[in-house]
Amino acid sequence: MSPSAKSVFVFGVYLSLVGLTLLLIPNFFLTTIGVENTREVWIRLSGLLLMALSVYYFAAAKHNIFVIFKVTAVIRCSILFFFTAFVYLQMMEPVMLIFAAIDFAGGFWTWLTMKKEGNWQWVNSYESGIKIKPTEKVPI
Question: What local confidence, expressed as pLDDT, does residue 128 receive?
Answer without folding.
Answer: 45
